[in-house]
Amino acid sequence: MRIGVLTGGGDVPGLNAAIRAVVKRAEMEYGHSVVGFRNGWRGVVEGDITALTREDVRGILPRGGTMLGTARYHPHKNEGGIDGVLSTLEAERVEALICIGGDGTLKAAHRVAKAGVKVVGIPKTIDNDVEGTDLSIGFHTAINIATEAIDRLHTTAESHNRVMVVEVMGHTVGWIAVNAGIAGGADLIITPEEPFDIEEIARFLRRRHRSHANFSIVVVAEGAEPAEGTDLQFSTQIDEKGRIVAGSIGERLMMELKERTGFDTRLTVLGHVQRGGTPTPTDRILGSRFGIAAVDALSNGAFGVMTAVRGEEIVLVPLEEIAGKVKQVPEDLVEVARALW
Ligand code: F6P
Is 127 an active-site residue? Predict the structure, then answer.
């Protein structure tokens, strides 16, 4: 079998581990050949292709990013996109596709599967919001980076008696905020799932500083918004592509808290640092397990599915079941965070 592999959407650490596992498993276990499409679905439509052998993937395991490049391009949203995918696959004699991506890439994978292509998806996103899997590639590294940043901010916050607002990624869900917030000992965590009341937050900080602390760490996800009817009118800044502008909510929150509490307040926007650099062992292992499971699935005739981890096990989930859905942070995890404020 000739298998094509692509990485789509935002890059994450651990993608190269998955690509490497796909190539090694395909070649060594089944004698399949593998080609890579550059820059996600765009590369498939444009026929931007490269052969991938064991030699090509040597040394990529610890490297962040993706050796194939990536793009936020979805064939079903562009005129002639799906036809472009089909004609490239035919011209290049590619019989099956492994698509490594987040919600957008996997939704496109579902559309392409419906058009008759043998597709297996692999979930990746630092946001950890892909439905159907406990973990997506990249999330573990991102919370490691964010936790380390919060640890570092703690010592400087304490030394200066400051309130530190830390903005992390997460435009619709607060997986990074809640997990890094718990691990880093944040004093308040604000997520997109639960619109906030600015006055309640200011009151909480005033009380905390009056009773037992001289500093505070406030973690906020970039997609957090004030609750309707509360004392703050604010809409997050959106760019020309409809995406949240990093730092928008963080900056406003910092200004408001400074004014409402009188405390010296600073903002740190972690931004793309959360997606950069070396993957953690957990992400390398997850990427490797998903890569092997994806090739096994194709080789055993399982198509239109996504690899997923549930507890200790790797399972296959129909793309149909997860496409277009967003996995929210469970309430019991949010409760753990609250119990520690
Ligand atoms: O979807 C992953 C993500 O890292 C989000 O958390 C963030 O909002 C977005 O990508 C940033 O996108 P870009 O890299 O295109 O600025």
Answer: yes
Identify residue 58 by its one-letter amino acid code.
Answer: R
User: For a substitution probing ligand 1, which of 169, 172, 191, 269 has the most ligand atoms within 8 Å of its CB?
Assistant: 169
∠ CA 74-76-78, nearest 5°, is 75
pTM: 0.97
Ligand 1 center from residue 226 Cα (angstroms):
21
Q: Are residues 114 and 227 in the same domain?
A: no
338 belongs to a structural domain: no
Look up the domain containing 213 and give its range: 142-275
pLDDT tens for each residue of 177-213: 999 999 999 999 999 999 999 999 999 999 999 999 9
Q: How many domains does the chain have?
A: 2
Ligand 1 touching residue 275 (CB < 6 A): yes
- Give mean pLDDT, residues 294-321: 98
Q: What is the CATH number of the domain that holds 314?
A: 3.40.50.450
Q: Is the CB of 258 under 6 A from ligand 1?
A: no
CA atoms within 13 A on the CB side of 73: 23
